[in-house]
Amino acid sequence: MIAVDIGNTMSKFGYFSCQSLRFRLPKPESCIRFLHSKKKTVNGTRFFDGEAHKSIKNWLLNKQDCNDWYIAVTASGCNKESLIDELKSLKPDGSFRILTNDDVPIKTNVDFPSQIGIDRLLGAFAGSKFINDLLFPVDSTNADRTHNIETIIVIDAGTAITIDLVRINTNPAIFEGGAILSGLKTLSVTLNQTVSRLPEVNVSDFKSTDLIYPAKNTESAISTGILGSQIAAINFFIQRVKSTEYINAKTDKNKNNEIEIPIVFTGGDATIISELFNKEYSNKIVSSVPNLVLVGIALIMKSTYHE
């Protein structure tokens, strides 16, 4: 099957063979991604440019079991009919299904469930499986710290950064909501466009060592401000969660009597943010899981391939 995640600025495709879907936690055997114009998603014009079309067709070559396509659309205002037509031009004999929030087997405890981006629900659902199925990729020092966990936090670091709380001691898990921040590139572009003489810092060049205080030049000051504010915000929300009703006496604590809340990072900027967060707060259980939304799609549809 092919899983597709249409975000606000990036489209991601993942290929899952029938064999890979037999695993409890399937991983895409191959992925490809493209930037796209948000304006095109609204206008219904050609979604992917000619070069992207060519690359996707080449990517599909020699892939078996790729007739079934499951698509999660987060991009606001996306013309879904035009999107399906364009995907059909890539795979004329394919079967295409756009998933809805109701397809995600997770409960919600928020004011307006229909307004939640499906990418957040898919990430929360997939993240919960890393704990519930005892497949959370922890190292040996954390191996005994993932028992009896009741709550996790899933962070998707893309155009926006979503920080979501998931209660996993229920069946199904419960999406409790969270926070939405500007992503690294979004902040860099905004500073460049709204503050005179400030350069746009290349997000792809960010490293964990870029958080230097006090910074000694403008670009370093921007990097430090953006990176520092993001990890500080993440830690702030984690501390708020620990002081709320979502944590109770049954939740495990480490040897320093600190409540354990595993944190699952995903998204395009997950590596840099998770590495820096782990460096600053090394006592946390932190994992970076690529393509968590695609994994969530595969987890939902895998039962079809077990028949």
Brief description of this entry?
The protein is of the alpha/beta class and 307 residues long.
Description:
The chain is α/β, with parallel strands linked by helices. It contains eight helices and eleven strands. The two termini are 15 Å apart. It has two domains: 2-98, Nucleotidyltransferase, domain 5; 107-291, Nucleotidyltransferase, domain 5 (2-Layer Sandwich), CATH 3.30.420. A six-stranded mixed sheet has the order 6-9-8-7-10-11, sandwiched between helices. A five-stranded mixed sheet has the order 3-2-1-4-5, with helices on both faces. The longest helix is centred in the last third of the chain and has 25 residues, at 218-242. β7 (151-157) and β8 (160-167) form a beta hairpin. α4 packs across α8 (292-301). Residues 134-143 have low confidence and may be disordered. It is globular and about 60 Å long.
How do the helices and strands line up, and which of them pair or pack?
Blueprint: E1 2-6, E2 10-15, E3 30-35, H1 38-43, H2 50-60, E4 68-73, H3 80-90, E5 95-98, E6 107-108, H4 118-132, E7 151-157, E8 160-167, E9 174-182, H5 184-194, H6 218-242, E10 263-266, H7 270-280, E11 286-288, H8 292-301
Parallel strand pairs: 1-4, 4-5, 6-9, 7-10, 10-11
Antiparallel strand pairs: 1-2, 2-3, 7-8, 8-9
